[in-house]
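Title: Comparing notes on inverse folding

I've been comparing how different people in this forum approach sequence design from structure. To keep things fair, I'm posting one structure and asking everyone to reply with a full sequence. Here's the target:
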């Protein structure tokens, strides 16, 4: 699922866009295009969607019956379990939910961070983070979604996510069996011109580094300790080519030959097919247990003259934002193993959890810009039950005026209960220390 960037939203525009994206006409259009809905019956698309968001985002949902109870509460109906279950088990249900997620990310996300005018990060079109998160599903689904650890989790899925650090939301989400290699789902280097990519060690590939360079993209990728490129030049932590490090030049990299200090290296690494990757590797020294040597390897093509060792380390710490996103999905939007052997229901509820988390962040970001204060998406997501249902009822009613009032109430609540605990600390050691700043307070 690929999305595109949206323009900034003000407080009135978010209400209009919410109705334009999640209102009855838009949702019915998606339901008809996927053939989830052919004739309007008791379980109609918008109330079904609203019930999924409410149950997955504002309470602990372990059973489909939890979603049914939410549906009946919103619609004031008494739909029984079987017709409700029959609607969710349709093959079109997961595609319907996926397309709604895509529409929300396309139409409702907004930039919330930017590089300071004096920051080195202002040179990038975007800063993107890519990683995956996996979790078990019902064991009976092992043939559709085989897991990597067949004895512990015979059936498991992985969500491969590319996140924009500037929008604080995903821009691409792909669902696949956990057993498939994560390399197959990494962003295409041809699409990364002017973009800085942050990736974990699972995406270390000299061929990929070379392809990103050739596409005029940038990267910081964590490396593994088993690599053996050739060291061509060795610099100290200040970027000086020190004499005492000259003995490293011409040797194969290994932690044994590195001194007990952080070093900045130019390396050459032969690729498959005869090409050679020439790049930069920052080896950050970390004393290990019992005073053993330990290093964090960071591959990058950021120029040493502009980005120091300290800069590279601080920027790479932005990768932690995607781990916080995954934690939010799993802890606060019920992204877990539902007790169902029906693949359509399992996949549809996965997309429902992602949609719920996305909507929470969209409301939080809108509140942040409207109020001009810095809000915590984690705090907002944890307390969403106090404002989310009223927004969903307003969307269900289709009234712009009522929705605007619900958003105003949500903004007031978030102003009092969702503010970041330590904004000054964030600037010194957190995500703003790399040179980013929130648009809301800039």
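Reply #1:
Here's my take.
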């Amino acid at each position: 699922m690929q999305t595109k960037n949206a323009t900034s939203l003000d407080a009135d525009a978010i209400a209009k866009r919410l109705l334009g994206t999640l209102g009855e006409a838009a949702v019915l259009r998606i339901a008809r295009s996927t053939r989830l809905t052919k004739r309007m019956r008791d379980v109609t698309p918008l109330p079904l969607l609203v019930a999924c968001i409410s149950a997955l985002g504002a309470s602990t949902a372990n059973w489909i019956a939890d979603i049914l109870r939410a549906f009946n509460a919103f619609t004031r109906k008494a739909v029984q379990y079987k017709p409700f279950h029959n609607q969710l088990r349709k093959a079109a249900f997961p595609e319907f939910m996926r397309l709604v997620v895509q529409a929300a990310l396309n139409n409702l996300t907004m930039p919330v961070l930017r590089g300071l005018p004096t920051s080195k990060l202002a040179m990038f079109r975007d800063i993107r983070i890519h990683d995956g998160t996996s979790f078990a599903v019902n064991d009976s689904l092992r043939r559709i979604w085989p897991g990597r650890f067949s004895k512990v989790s015979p059936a498991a899925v992985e969500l491969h996510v590319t996140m924009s650090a500037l929008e604080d939301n995903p821009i691409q989400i792909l669902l696949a069996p956990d057993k498939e290699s994560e390399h197959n789902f990494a962003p295409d280097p041809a699409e990364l011109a002017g973009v800085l990519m942050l990736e974990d060690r699972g995406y270390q590939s000299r061929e990929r580094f070379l392809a990103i360079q050739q596409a005029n993209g940038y990267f910081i990728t964590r490396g593994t300790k088993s690599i053996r490129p050739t060291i061509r030049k060795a610099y100290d932590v200040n970027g000086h080519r020190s004499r005492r490090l000259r003995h490293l030049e011409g040797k194969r990299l290994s932690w044994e030959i590195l001194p007990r200090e952080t070093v900045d290296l130019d390396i050459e690494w032969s690729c498959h097919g005869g090409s050679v990757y020439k790049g930069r590797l920052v080896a950050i020294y970390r004393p290990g247990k019992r005073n053993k040597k330990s290093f964090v390897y960071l591959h990058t093509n950021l120029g040493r003259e502009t980005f120091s060792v300290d800069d590279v380390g601080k920027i790479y710490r932005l990768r932690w934002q995607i781990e916080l996103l995954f934690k939010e999905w799993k802890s606060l939007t019920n992204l877990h193993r539902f007790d169902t052997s029906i693949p359509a229901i399992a996949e549809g509820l996965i997309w429902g959890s992602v949609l719920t988390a996305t909507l929470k962040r969209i409301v939080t970001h809108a509140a942040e810009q409207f109020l001009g204060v810095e809000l915590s998406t984690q705090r907002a997501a944890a307390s969403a039950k106090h404002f989310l249902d009223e927004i969903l009822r307003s969307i269900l009613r289709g009234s712009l005026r009522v929705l605007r009032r619900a958003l105003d109430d949500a903004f007031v609540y978030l102003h009092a209960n969702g503010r970041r605990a330590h904004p000054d600390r964030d600037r010194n050691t957190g995500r703003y220390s790399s040179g980013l700043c929130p648009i809301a307070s800039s």
